[in-house]
Amino acid sequence: MTETREIERIVLMALDEDAPWGDLTGETLIPEAATATADLVAREPGVFSGARVVEATFRLVDPRIAVELLVADGEPFATGDVLARVSGPARGILRAERVALNLVQRMSGVATLTARYVAAVAGTRARIVDTRKTTPGLRSLERQAVRDGGGRNHRRSLSDAIMAKDNHLAVLTAGGADLAGALRAARERMPHTAHLEVEVDRVEQIPAVLAGGADTIMLDNFDLAALREGVALIDGRAIVEASGGVNLDTVAGIAATGVDVISVGALTHSARALDLGLDVVIEAGPA
C-alpha cells in the first residue's frame, strides 16, 4: 500500500500547481460560510482505485471536509454508482475538486485496464506486471492502481534490481567479452539480496544468460513459437518474462506459452482516465 506521506507529497504538489496563490474564483464568488455536499459519480463502469488519494486531497485543502468512501480500492462499479460523498466548506470542496478527480480518474483508469489484462490470462500461470513507463511523479499511485486491478508490480526504480537490457549487453560485450562470464562477474559484485534479470531478443542468447546465473530472463518481442521454445530451453532454471507486442488481443496467447510473467507497459502509459464526475450541491450559508 502506498504510504500516507507519499500520497500527501503528490497531492500537495498537485494542489500547489493548481492553486499556487489560492482559488481566485472560489474566493471571489463563493461566500466563506457556504457549505456543500458533493457525490463522486461514475459516468462509466470500471474498477476503483484512489480512495486514500481522495481523502487526502480534501483533507489537505480543508480538514473540516468530511469524506465518506462508498467503494473500496479494487472494487468494480457500474455507471451511475456513487463512489464517495464529501461535505463541508464549499470553497474547499471546489478547490480540491479538480485535483481529486484528475488523480482518481487516472488511477481508476489504470486499475480498470489492468483488470482486463488479468481476466484475459485467467487460468494460466502468467502474472501481469507493470513497467517503469509511468507518468513522471505519479509512479507510486499508478503502481498502487495496478495492484488494485489485480496485477503485480515490476521493479519500482533503477535502484531496486539489476536489469540488463539490450543496450547494457551491447556495451558490456563491445570489447568481445564473454556474456556468461560478464554476467557471472556482475553477480560477484552485486549485493546478495539483489535480483538479476537479463533481456534477450533471440533464443540463441539464452544458454549464455543461463550460464551467467540470471534469476529472470526476459524474452523480448518473441513470437509465440519462439516463446514456447524459450520456456522449454530455460526449463524452470529462471523466471521467464515475456515483453513486447503485448496487448489485449495477444496477451492470452502469450500466457498460454507457459511464461511466468508478462510485463505490459500499456497498463500505465496507455491507460485512459475514467469518466468520473463530482456533482456538487451548494447549500446557503448563514445570513
Automatic annotation (TrEMBL):
Its EC number is 2.4.2.19. Residues 23-108 form the Quinolinate phosphoribosyl transferase N-terminal domain. GO terms for biological process: NAD+ biosynthetic process; quinolinate catabolic process. Keywords: Glycosyltransferase, Pyridine nucleotide biosynthesis, Transferase. It is an enzyme of class 2 (transferase). Substrate binds at residues 98, 131-133, 155, 165, 199, 220, 243-245, 264-266. SUPFAM superfamilies: Nicotinate/Quinolinate PRTase C-terminal domain-like, Nicotinate/Quinolinate PRTase N-terminal domain-like. InterPro entries: Aldolase_TIM, NadC, NadC/ModD, Nicotinate_pribotase-like_C, Quinolinate_PRibosylTase_N_sf, Quinolinate_PRibosylTrfase_C, Quinolinate_PRibosylTrfase_N. It catalyses: nicotinate beta-D-ribonucleotide + CO2 + diphosphate = quinolinate + 5-phospho-alpha-D-ribose 1-diphosphate + 2 H(+). It holds the Pfam family QRPTase_C. Residues 110-279 form the Quinolinate phosphoribosyl transferase C-terminal domain. One of its GO terms (molecular function) is nicotinate-nucleotide diphosphorylase (carboxylating) activity. One of its GO terms (cellular component) is cytoplasm. Pathway: Cofactor biosynthesis; NAD(+) biosynthesis; nicotinate D-ribonucleotide from quinolinate: step 1/1. It comes from the Bacteria. Belongs to the NadC/ModD family. Involved in the catabolism of quinolinic acid (QA). Hexamer formed by 3 homodimers. This is Nicotinate-nucleotide pyrophosphorylase [carboxylating]. The lineage of its organism: Bacteria, Bacillati, Actinomycetota, Actinomycetes, Micrococcales.
